[in-house]
Amino acid sequence: MTPEEQLELFTRNCVGLETREELLEKLRLGRPLRIKYGADPSAPDLHLGHSVPIRKLQQFQELGHQVVFIIGDFTGLIGDPSGRSKTRPMLTEDEIMVNAETYAQQVGKLLDVGKCEIRYNSEWFAPMSASAMLEIAGHYTVARMLERDDFSLRLRDGIPITILETLYPLIQGYDSVAVEADVEIGGNDQLFNLLVGRDIMRAYGMTPQVVMTWPLLVGTDGTEKMSKSLGNYIGITELPTEMYGKLMSIPDELMPDYYHLLLDKSRTEVKALQADIETGKLHPRQAKANLARAIVASYHSETAAQEAAEEFDRVFTQREKPSELQEIALAAGELSGGTIGIVELVLKAGFARSKGEARRLIRQGGVKLQDQVVSDEMARVAVSEGAVLQVGKRRFGQITIT
How confident is the prediction for the chain on average, in pLDDT? Predict the structure, then answer.
């Protein structure tokens, strides 16, 4: 592709670009560009929200450019303040490393990891001297730092901002110096951090990186950005049936953005899809099923997507149990008179992350044992070999007693 054709491909769906002219100039250099993307391992799994910029990395890689994937094991210790209304709890080094170990494997769902340059930013920060760190801090002013919305709002509302948080954009910006980035991409919530990277590169006598950002993906609740902490996420390593089911549960109004951001459909293609739905040419449920199958196939396979679709129809259209049930293994010693607390059973099945979440699901009527709703969170329920526990619409488990 010519530099001009690459420019059009790479900037499709882009909402922040600093600057178009600089990107075209870099593409005309006739060498592979170094495309930087960073992710702090603050949680063990990447989700479809992360995949929006990663899919763009895939396009760069396919055209011969060098993807530099930075795992922020050092910056993760601080915690990105972007979009935060309060200080983010600091993670331990052990927590960071456990999460980081899964990232390279997960990006392999979309990228050719063998061709990626995967770096940990502790490589240059761990051995860095205090004077070198102070030098980085000396290249930015407090006034500029407080221009960012999340800091200015917290300052207005009297919510504390730690000095450590103000260092985060500077440290992330120095990553671009360390890897000599030509381009950095990310979600639109990262725009401030990425622009700081341009300033830091200038301060170190380097040509500033081009900054490209994409919209944030709204989660399955239809209101908040996709986030593990909010429970509205779809993990890129989830089982095909779970991924398909979650995609079928999204509100209809999210479909245009999901087609646009997750399948890279153009605005024209999305408008044509919406017109087909509005005129009755295409049923919304079929449009959502097409979306779900395409996304599941991209992370698993066409066969897995077909099987997930058939399983979904069995359970939700024909109202049958899933063809395969997760095993919930209980030891006889865990039972008292053949009974177990319903909260304990939900946790044992792995269908809730905490007692609080299990109680909430029970109170909301989302827990069934042998097709009978259990709405009392204090209840002890009688269980037997082969009994089926259902939590929500998609999670089923069959009890075995040893």
Answer: 85
